[in-house]
User: What shape does this take?
Amino acid sequence: MSRPSRRTVLAGTAAAAALTAVPFAPGHAHAAGEKADDATAYRWRNVVIGGTGFITGVLFHPRVRGLAYARTDIGGAYRWDDRAARWTPLLDHLGWDDWNLLGVEAMAVDPAHRDRIYLACGTYAQAWAGNGAILRSDDRGATWRRTDLTVKLGANEDGRGAGERLLVDPRDSGTLWLGTRHDGLWRSTDRGATWRPAPGFPATPSPTGQGVTLLVAAGRTLYAGWGDAGGTAPNLFRTADGATWEPVPGQPAGTAARVPIRAAYDAHTRDLYVTYADAPGPNGQSDGSVHKLQTMNGRWTEVTPARPGGTTDDGSADTFGYGGVAVDARRPGTVVVSTNNRWAAVDTLFRSTDGGHSWTSLKESARLDVSETPYLKWGEKQPKFGWWIQAVALDPFDSKHLVYGTGATLYATRDLRRWAPQIRGLEETSVTQLISPPSGRAHLLSGSRDIGVMYHERLTASPARGMAANPVFGSATGLAQAARRPAYVVRTGWGDHGNGAYSNDGGITWAPFASQPAIAKSAPGPIAANADGSVLLWSFVHWDGTKYAAHRSADNGTTWSEVPSFPKGARPVADPVDPAVFYAYDTDAGALLASTDGGRTFTARATGLPAGDSQYQLAVAPGRSGDLWLSTKHNGLYRSTDGGAAFTRVTSCLASHTLGFGKAADGAAYPAVYQVGSLGPAGTLTAVYRSDDEARTWTRINDDRHQWGWTGETITGDPRIHGRVYLATNGRGIQYGDPR
Assistant: This one.
């Protein structure tokens, strides 16, 4: 299996930073053109895939049986319900302006208070991202209070699998510690309501470094890992009184050149286990080790299960680091560690029952059952044991209940031999494409980053065929259906064995294009199929934004020819009625172009449209030739009923991020229109809306509890069920809503 691609998110504007705590319960005032219908009249659920994202941390509560929390890099946090055997999402209330907070950098529980949970949220530490925030709850995440920080966090950056960087002081539940990447160590003395830099912490942050990588309590002593040591300075510090920090004496030779990834404390033996790697991960690690510190006498011992290096049976270099570590609260000296970035020999968990003197790899005896989430086979006969394993946790009430996170799921066992995903309810897909076919067995086809294209036979179960094969794509960049021949579907994306494929049975089975343009391998972009499926138009955009000339095929992808008059990088759109007609919006020029010769040539029609809005979408109403809708983030919504010769501003909408169509309401002659947008005036909440009267009025159909951060990629209604809508999110999978 190829390595999962780096998921991205379009930059937005995060909430302003402050150091005051505020209740987290956004309100909503109705805007002009919006009906004051009850927003809770919709029921929202996830389309089930099962996981699909990087589980960066799992934390069992040490005093409450069956209670655990999980964090993800872009998809929020979850609480485990042991009785229901499923995860409950905790951050779906985060709205459009707070998308940056759906990345959870760290979490902490209070051992003395069973219902308290704290989250450190912030997806990116870059200048264009908003500052981080601390969320704190007294009811296991049912409700939250929030403190905006003046520093940035990086839950989707290198080092996101380290941690935890948030800790409740074992000597005082009112004191919390927060490790940041670029601003050192911070402390709160009022249960996270306000924060200040911790005085006396000796390490100096680097603008490009990792900063504090972990915080852990060993009895009443606190330890902090430091990722900016640079190979010479100490990288593990401790405090016994919460005021004076010092380097831990006698740190093992060679570890200063490595990053301390995670640590776990065995309260029975007083041993602190620390995993190290030569890079923060999850990628880029090639060396690492495991050491334990006997905290009573200060003696260090190396207990590395297997040294990186050497070669595998096929001659590949067996390089890797170490990541997760967990100790058994019931059995002294029992510890589990994980390898990470071990692509040649595949990552594993090592388990020791004698304090690290001897180890057993759990991978070789593992029996993996992924029947509930078959995509985890990635087109192969058997799933891999895992990759990106940096989150490892042992149930403090059950020594054989061991879980570990990967780049796509969370595996669990109750007997150390049989493993299956423990992932129900946790959906972290970053979705880019949605089609709801007008006929056929499936109501939904989807395309996503990292997991390609899926055919959803049922919305309540992971697709039985897993990822679409022949070839298996990593990330989907295009998905299109011939409007008058819905059994014909095409898809494009990043893959190791071809970047385009077609289906003649509605997406059940696929065949690769016989050939592809050379640029397709490095810059696969969106694709369109004309109304009868006889012509394909493929646009090319590199992930860095570089645009290339589009290509056309009239023989199902056997041969391709360049289309010089098509605007580079634009998204091709096919007319749903006339096979000779394609459309494209040139955002650089602010012009609508059309082709009437099957995509061979394009000429400008309407000009003077909003230019420079890269987050646009051009859509055409189903079954209506030339009925175009132009959705733009900064300039609102426009409509043309003459094939793009002229556009009229839709005055009911201030900003439109994505737009789609579904079955018309009873008695209505026009399809239902769905959008993610805002209706005005400026500053009005960005929400999900439906219109049954051609956008004259809108009804908000999500509510303040169901917002999912950034939702501007794609939306579509169901052409067979009025009111049903499918919504793509960047980290919370596919949401679908039905009127109650």
